[in-house]
């Protein structure tokens, strides 16, 4: 019982980092999920990983004078890690937005708490489908592995390297954008070819009201190609997310 205060302080430090990450994780960190649920998720992670990480936290928790500073540092590290993962996961939503633009459904909007407002319908659909595939493929296990590995990269009690995190965030943003473009590449090719064909049709037959023909044709062919390429798109995203987590955070 004598070391109970130190263990309670250590659990608080552990909960600070893991809870901050849980507040920003894909799916679990969306605004649609109640804050209490996200906090309970962080509490469950801290309790589940206590046996594995307690020895890394207890030495810092024993120093009561350094506890407030360590707590702030843990919160900052957790928020930074969660934000980096969330940025990378937005590649699926960006790919869906590109697909919507190419098909002509960019005006079909739906409320998406994950993006902080309205988003194209297909963007929300691709994002949810990618989340479900990642959970079924066990990618969320890599999220937990990244949390555990973070204690080796960023020891408890030290200030988070702001410059390194900024460089990482910039690099991840660029990687997410390039991944989104590569995932939506078939639809980009489709849009380019279709628009060239429509332009040639207008030049060959100016009297034809090409707009009334092009709009339903664009949507019908676009949805057909999207349905065919959706499976490979999601699998490619899951593989890219797995590789990125294994090489960057895990």
Fold and architecture overview:
The chain is mainly α and 250 residues long. The chain has one domain. The chain has helices at residues 4-22, 35-48, 50-61, 67-103, 121-136, 139-153, 162-183, 185-204, 210-249, and strands at 109-112, 117-120. The longest helix has 40 residues, at 210-249.
Count of extended strands: 2
Strand arrangement in the largest pleated sheet: 1-2
Main sheet properties? 2 strands, antiparallel
Order of helices and strands: HHHHEEHHHHH
Helix content: over 70%
Multimeric state: single chain
Supply the number of structural domains.
1
> On the 0-100 scale, what is the average pLDDT?
82
Strand-residue fraction? under 5%
Structural class: mainly alpha
What is the radius of gyration computed over CA atoms, rounded to a whole number of angstroms?
Answer: 23 Å
| Cα separation of the termini | 36 Å
Stretches where pLDDT is under 50 for at least 5 consecutive residues are none
Q: What is the number of helices?
A: 9
Which word captures the global form? elongated
């Amino acid at each position: 019982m004598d070391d109970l205060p130190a263990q309670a302080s250590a659990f608080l430090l552990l909960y600070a980092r893991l809870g901050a990450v849980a507040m920003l994780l894909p799916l679990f960190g969306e605004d649609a999920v109640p804050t209490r649920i996200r906090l309970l998720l962080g509490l469950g992670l801290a309790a589940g990983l206590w046996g594995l990480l307690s020895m890394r936290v207890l030495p810092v928790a024993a120093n009561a004078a350094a506890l407030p500073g360590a707590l702030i540092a843990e919160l900052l590290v957790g928020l930074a890690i969660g934000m980096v993962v969330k940025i990378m996961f937005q590649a699926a939503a960006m790919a869906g937005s590109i697909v919507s633009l190419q098909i002509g459904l960019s005006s079909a909007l739906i409320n998406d708490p994950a993006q902080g407002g309205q988003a194209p319908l297909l963007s929300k659909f691709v994002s949810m489908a990618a989340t479900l595939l990642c959970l079924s493929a066990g990618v969320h296990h890599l999220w937990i592995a990244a949390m555990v590995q973070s204690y080796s990269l960023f020891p408890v009690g030290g200030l988070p390297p702001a410059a390194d995190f900024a460089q990482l965030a910039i690099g991840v943003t660029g990687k997410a954008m390039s991944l989104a473009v590569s995932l939506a590449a078939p639809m980009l090719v489709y849009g380019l070819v279709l628009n060239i064909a429509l332009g040639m049709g207008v030049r060959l037959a100016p009297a034809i009201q090409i707009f009334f023909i092009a709009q339903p044709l664009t949507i019908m062919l676009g949805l057909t190609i999207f349905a065919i390429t959706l499976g490979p798109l999601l699998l490619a995203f899951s593989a890219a997310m797995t590789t990125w987590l294994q090489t960057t955070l895990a």
